[in-house]
């Protein structure tokens, strides 16, 4: 319910902002009223996402949300009427008031009456909204950022370089690692040191800092850096070590791609023979001891005192790699976290101009639990933002309340604004985000396809694709049926999208489907579509000439049907009265529609019917006198242009 309310609120707020600047609003003094309404609605919208999370456990919240939606829809009606009258006024200016009805409407008395009526309705909506908004205090709802792109991208390959000025609060850790490197060790020629800590604590940064220390550079004949990540392939790693070793010793870089294991091993033995080397294996996940032994055996030719540093999140990985020293990296103290936040949020010295933001920053870093990556991420998000509201929104965001295990990526790392770069393709590793519930890829104008691996997100509840102009293909994999938690799909302004994914009939939890302005989309193909929709909205689908037959599969569940600006929709299907659960039907700007099907009286649950800017249909449904009025006379609330 809240998802629907939030979506409607977004639409109304956007339209309010647009109309407030148009000539009709300025000429008839509506601009100020519309701006006030926009402000109140924006304040209410800020708590809707939080309300969605609480409505299942809090009595009365669903009713409150229903009241809000009713006001939102009434506001939408008023705005639509303003738009229609603005259009009529423009037509009159362009072509002249040659028709008696046009002259009559734009007489001074009618214009005054219209101004009075609209002003009264806007005021009434604002007052209703204010009264409903007051009740929110009893639910203890909190404002939160609009959900934006929430994507954890595949980790980039690491490298060995780091600036000293970029490292804060790790001097003691660095010294301890260097002390271990300078000690000869007791594990043969090559000994292993592990740096262990949860994601984001700065293991890689610490290893980089150690790697570039002058004492380390002077101690070892060869320094080698290899980013391992999840794929612990012995041959591949051996090739990377060989390539890096050749660079380190000043030798030429020979082609390794087609070399066999024997060739790589022989080459490594020659390169490393009697040399004291220092190797960093960054971001290791391997728990297979046999693979590690296979790699270590290739490195036995090094001189005594050679060292390998491993960075990992897992103590089990560290124990598999070797029985050597383990350095546990802990969270940074709050003062160091604050320094890091300010470093990323401000230009040098700029923070002195904003003491209030610094105070809010202190509260933010408390929530980061000493994790530098979390602090740095939030600092980056807040860079150039000097409005206190932006900082408070980060501090008070609902995402801090998400449950997490001690080794999870912190909620701070999921906070994101639209400044993130567009992605041409989502990484297939998105399937690793097993607990992801909300994915918004809105206004990403480069993404062309979604990977089939997205079907592995079995906890995903909401998928939003708005303004993905290049998106051509959705997952076709049969595994789409694994999205058993998906409740909402939202496609808007995906101009290249031609069809919905197959297998949607398996999305048994899907309740809301919204499709806006998808010019090439064909909804008529196949019958493999949702079976238990609660809400279905379509807007500006030029290829739509009839409602899709598969909609009848949701006959017992569909409560809200909205059809907007479908210029080529010529008639309703005969099966429309079979949608026995339908409560609200809205039809706007569908000029080719002229009548409703027989049997509308069977829609006994229908309580709200709106028909706007559909000339022929509005005429035929006119109260008491229209040819189709008898079909809808039983509906409690009927709102038609001609009324």
Task: Walk me through this protein's architecture.
The protein is of the alpha/beta class and 643 residues long. Helix 13 links the parallel strand 3 and strand 4. Helix 1 packs parallel to helix 5 and helix 11 packs parallel to helix 13. It is elongated, with a radius of gyration of 32 Å.
Sequence of strands across the biggest β-sheet: 6-7-8-9-10-11-12-13-14
Overall 3D form: elongated
Question: The biggest beta sheet, please?
Answer: 9 strands, parallel
- Top CATH class of the domain at 164-328: Alpha Beta
Radius of gyration: 32 Å
Q: How many β strands by DSSP? A: 14
**Name of the CATH architecture of the domain at 164-328:** 3-Layer(aba) Sandwich
**Level of helix content?**
25-40%
Low-confidence stretches: 94-110, 145-156, 402-421
GO molecular function: ADP binding; ATP binding
GO biological process, one term: response to other organism
Protein name: Disease resistance protein RGA3
Domain Disease resistance R13L4/SHOC-2-like LRR: 429-523
């Amino acid at each position: 319910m809240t998802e629907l309310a939030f979506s409607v609120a977004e639409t109304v707020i956007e339209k309010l902002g647009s109309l407030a600047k148009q000539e009709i609003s300025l000429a008839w003094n509506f601009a100020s009223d519309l701006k006030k309404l926009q402000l109140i609605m924006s304040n209410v919208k800020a708590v809707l996402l939080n309300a969605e999370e609480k409505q299942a456990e809090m009595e009365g919240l669903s009713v409150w949300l229903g009241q809000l939606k009713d006001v939102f829809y009434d506001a939408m009606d008023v705005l639509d009427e303003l738009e229609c009258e603005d259009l009529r006024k423009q037509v009159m200016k362009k072509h002249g008031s040659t028709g008696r009805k046009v002259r009559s409407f734009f007489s001074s008395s009618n214009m005054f009456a219209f101004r009075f009526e609209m002003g009264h309705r806007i005021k009434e909506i604002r007052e209703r909204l204010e009264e409903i908004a007051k009740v929110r205090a009893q639910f203890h709802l909190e404002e939160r950022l609009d959900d934006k792109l929430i994507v954890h991208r595949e980790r980039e390959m690491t490298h060995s370089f780091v600036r000293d000025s970029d490292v804060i609060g790790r001097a003691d850790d660095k010294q301890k690692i260097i002390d271990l490197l300078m000690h000869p060790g007791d594990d043969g020629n090559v000994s292993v040191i592990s740096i262990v800590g949860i994601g984001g604590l700065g293991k890689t940064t610490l290893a980089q800092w150690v790697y570039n220390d002058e004492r380390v550079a002077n101690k070892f004949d060869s320094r080698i850096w290899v980013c391992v990540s999840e794929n612990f392939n012995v041959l591949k790693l051996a090739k990377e070590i060989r390539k890096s070793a050749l660079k380190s010793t000043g030798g030429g870089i020979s082609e390794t791609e087609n070399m066999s294991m024997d060739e790589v091993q022989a080459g490594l033995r020659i390169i490393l023979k009697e040399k004291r080397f220092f190797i960093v294996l960054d971001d290791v996940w391997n728990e297979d001891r046999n693979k590690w032994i296979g790699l270590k055996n290739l490195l036995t030719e090094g001189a005594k005192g050679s060292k390998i540093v491993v960075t990992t999140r897992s103590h089990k990985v560290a124990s598999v790699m070797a029985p050597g020293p383990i350095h546990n990296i802990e969270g940074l103290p709050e003062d160091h976290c604050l320094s890091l936040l300010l470093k990323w949020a401000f230009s040098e010295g700029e923070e002195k101009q904003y003491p209030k933001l610094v105070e809010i920053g202190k509260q933010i870093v408390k929530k980061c639990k000493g994790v530098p990556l979390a602090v740095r991420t939030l600092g980056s998000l807040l860079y150039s933002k000097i409005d206190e509201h932006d900082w408070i929104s980060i501090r008070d965001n609902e995402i801090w309340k998400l449950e997490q295990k001690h080794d999870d990526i912190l909620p701070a790392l999921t906070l994101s604004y639209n400044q993130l770069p567009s992605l041409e393709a989502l990484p297939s590793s998105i399937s690793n985000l097993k607990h992801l519930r909300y994915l918004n890829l809105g206004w990403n104008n480069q993404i062309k396809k979604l990977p089939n691996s997205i079907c592995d997100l079995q906890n995903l509840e909401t998928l939003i694709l708005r303004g993905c102009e290049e998106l051509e293909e959705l997952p076709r994999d049969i595994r789409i049926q694994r999205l058993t938690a998906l409740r909402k799909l939202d496609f808007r302004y995906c101009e290249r999208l031609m069809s919905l994914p197959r297998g949607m009939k398996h999305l048994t939890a899907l309740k809301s489907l919204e499709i806006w302005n998808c010019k090439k989309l064909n909804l008529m193909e196949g019958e493999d579509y949702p079976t238990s929709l609660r809400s279905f909205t379509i807007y500006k689908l030029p290829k739509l000439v009839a409602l899709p037959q598969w909609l009848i599969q949701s006959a017992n569940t569909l409560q809200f049907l909205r059809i907007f600006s479908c210029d080529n929709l010529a008639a309703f299907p005969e099966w429309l009265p079979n949608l026995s659960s339908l409560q609200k039907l809205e039809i706007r700007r569908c000029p080719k529609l002229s009548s409703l099907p027989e049997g509308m009286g069977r829609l006994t649950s229908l309580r709200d019917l709106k028909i706007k800017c559909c000339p022929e249909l509005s005429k035929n449904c006119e109260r008491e006198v229209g040819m189709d009025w008898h079909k809808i006379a039983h509906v409690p609330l009927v709102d038609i242009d001609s009324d």
